[in-house]
Amino acid sequence: MTQQAAFLDTPALAPGVTRFWLIRHALVEENARLRLYGSTDVPLCPESLVSQEPMYRALAARLPRDAAWVVTPLSRTRVTAEHIQKAGYPQTGWTVEPDLIEQSMGSYHGLEHHRLPERLALTPHPFWPMAAEEVPPGGESMDQVLDRVGAALERLADLHDGRDIVAVSHGGAIRAACAHALGVDAATSLRLSVQNLSLTILERHPAAWRIVTVNELPGA
Fold first, then answer.
1. Which of 58, 80, 122, 189 could form a disulfide with 131 if both were Cys (CB 3.0 to 4.6 A apart)?
2. Which residues of the chain have pLDDT under 70?
3. Distance from C-alpha of 110 to C-alpha of 112, rounded to nearest angstrom
4. Which residues constitute the domain of residue 87?
5. Rounded CA gap, 205 and 17, in Å?
6. Residue whose C-alpha is closest to residue 160's, from 204, 199, 210, 100
7. Which helix H or strand E contains 216, and what residues bound it?
8. pLDDT (tens digit, 9 = 90+) per residue, 153-165?
9. Is residue 8, in this structure, part of any structural domain at all?
């Protein structure tokens, strides 16, 4: 089986449908992973960029041609996009969408993970550093992330109506996108696994949003 065939088949776009191909950025470097990095700009892991080259090739083969590309202001999404295109996708320009950025942890940025719980007012979510409604000092809650990501999806879908959109984004933002598509709260979306370099496909139809796949791993 080829890497491309290992993916789920995705039909051509029907009239009136806009499809998002959401990719979580590649793994960040080891020292950054020891702390909360949230919406700060940290580099990718250089060893993983080499070892995961087959995953970039699989993504390059999987993604639709003639798609609009979007990255966030953080370099880890841009570098991930560059590696996907270098792995075989036709070189394509992109726009920067600030509203698809990761949750801001505010003054908790840079905090070691084990030191976070003592700072929190609410019980942390079992699969996220904090509860969805917790607002870090100077930051934002996942509830707020859901609001801005949902608005960005609708705006981008209007702008690129009827097209495919490849967006290299972040784990929290992709979970929020799924919550927007399903009409569920942010806390529920945090139960989803969204791994690095995974693909999540959402479609906006005239009457409703639809989720095609979540956390699809290239070459799996």
1. 122
2. 1-10, 220
3. 6
4. 18-216
5. 5
6. 204
7. strand 209-216
8. 999 999 999 999 9
9. no
